[in-house]
Specification:
Helices cover about 5% and strands about 45% of the residues. By secondary structure, the chain is mainly beta. The chain folds into 5 domains: about 1-40 and about 120-165, no CATH class; about 50-110, no CATH class; about 210-295, Immunoglobulin-like (Sandwich); about 300-345, no CATH class; about 350-405, no CATH class.
């Protein structure tokens, strides 16, 4: 019966604990407990020794009745006179362990002395937050746990993991949408380093667009021929085009040619040219440059041609040579296509060693190595007896070796 009562008490306490903690999510740790009872009976291991008989003596008539102890026979303490007789008797036993006595009238020896004790045991369980499964959005630099995992340990002490943490709130974004043109997509970066796509809301001036309309493509002309240039400009914002610029060589920084929409020129020098064109809108923004290539073939002038020059026929058939130039026309016009017209054709010229050739030098010579051609590096040859170099031919000519004696067995003496 007692065990059933204890079990009922335990169930009631457990139910109260569950109700008290129902719905916990992210609160602090807490402790629950349960109590159980156990009963133990301990018996004294002693024997009982019959000590005396307890006898009730009654009178046959009205008179005193009394109880006496008989250490011998059962009735020794009740005198036979006076009409007395014994009424009942009980044996009295003494413990062999101590002086305690017990009156026992049952059958057999008296029972042993036993003590029953009840022990109550309380078990404590600590419930704590062992991990955070989800966090709230960052507010004022703090994020709090919105979903956690609970765990338990025996005892009354346990520690939760942190359920708040410092964080960075995306409070500002750069650049601001007002600084980007309306409808233009771009990437913003927050004060926390987070990036996102955004669309501009600002009112901006977009650059105009320049286009060369003439010549329609790259061209090649003879020096002195006219080239007609023409260009247009448009603006995506509808602004007026107020300025035009043409440059030779670089956009905005080359040689200025014109500030008109259209013009003609015959002043381009011989060689390759890149002509750039740009426009400016009314708010003052310049466009990127459009460009066209122009190749100007130089006029064939024998007076400025190197020795050995051969000229192409055709427009230059009337040229004449000078004292140092033989103005020989090439035999086949196929050697002078439009792309090479009026370019200089040089005859192959072999290398020719200079005055240093066959001289004697103690130190490596460095001057007068070649009269014609480019000298190579001077090296030691012939087992250390010579200085050797090569005069390289030009325009496909042969290379010719130069050589000088390497000797320090003489001494120059300055005249007095």
């Amino acid at each position: 019966m007692k065990n059933k009562i204890y079990i009922l008490i335990i169930l009631i306490l457990l139910g109260i604990s569950l109700l008290a903690n129902f719905g916990r999510t992210t609160e602090a740790s807490y402790v629950t407990s349960s109590t159980s009872s156990s009963t133990k009976t301990t018996c004294v291991n002693c024997s009982w020794v019959l000590n005396y008989w307890l006898v009730a003596c009654w009178a046959s008539t009205e008179g005193d009745n009394y109880t006496c102890r008989s250490y011998g026979g059962k009735y020794d303490c009740c005198p036979s006179t006076g009409g007395r007789f014994w009424h009942y008797l009980n044996p009295v036993y003494r413990s062999s362990c101590d002086s305690s006595v017990i009156s026992y009238s049952g059958s057999g020896n008296p029972p042993r002395v036993c003590t029953t004790t009840t022990t109550k045991t309380t078990v404590y369980t600590c419930h704590y937050i062992s991990s955070v499964d989800a966090w709230s959005e960052c507010v004022d630099g703090v994020s709090v746990a919105t979903s956690v995992t609970w765990s338990t340990v025996p005892g009354q002490t346990c520690t939760d993991v942190a359920t708040t943490r410092s964080c960075c709130s995306d409070t500002s974004w750069f650049p601001d949408t007002s600084t980007v043109c309306l409808g233009e997509s771009f990437t913003q970066t927050s004060n926390c380093g987070v990036t996102r796509l955004a669309v501009g809301t600002g009112s901006c001036n977009r650059a105009p667009i320049a286009e060369i309309t003439s010549p329609a493509g790259n061209i090649s002309i003879d020096k002195g021929d006219n080239i007609d240039f023409s260009g247009t400009g448009t603006d995506p914002d509808g602004d007026a085009i107020v300025a035009y610029e043409w440059y030779d060589g670089a956009c905005g920084s080359g040689t200025p040619i014109s500030t008109q929409t259209s013009f003609s020129t015959a002043s381009l020098g011989g060689g390759d040219h890149v002509i750039y064109f740009r426009v400016q809108d009314e708010p003052g923004l310049w466009s990127d440059c459009d460009s066209v290539n122009a190749t100007v073939y130089p006029a064939c002038d024998p007076a400025t041609a190197p020795v050995g020059t051969i000229f192409c026929p055709g427009d230059n058939s009337g040229i004449e040579g000078t004292e140092d130039v033989t103005a020989t026309l090439v035999s086949s016009s196929s050697d002078c296509t439009d792309s090479t017209k009026c370019e200089y054709y040089h005859l192959p010229t072999d290398g020719d060693p200079g005055s240093a050739n066959n001289e004697i030098f103690c130190q490596k010579p460095s001057e007068n190595l070649c009269d014609t051609g480019t000298p190579t590096a001077v090296e030691v040859g012939d087992n250390g007896k010579s200085w050797i170099w090569t005069c390289e031919g030009i325009y496909g000519g042969e290379n010719v070796e130069g050589k000088a004696v390497k000797s320090c067995a003489y001494q120059e003496v300055s005249p007095n």
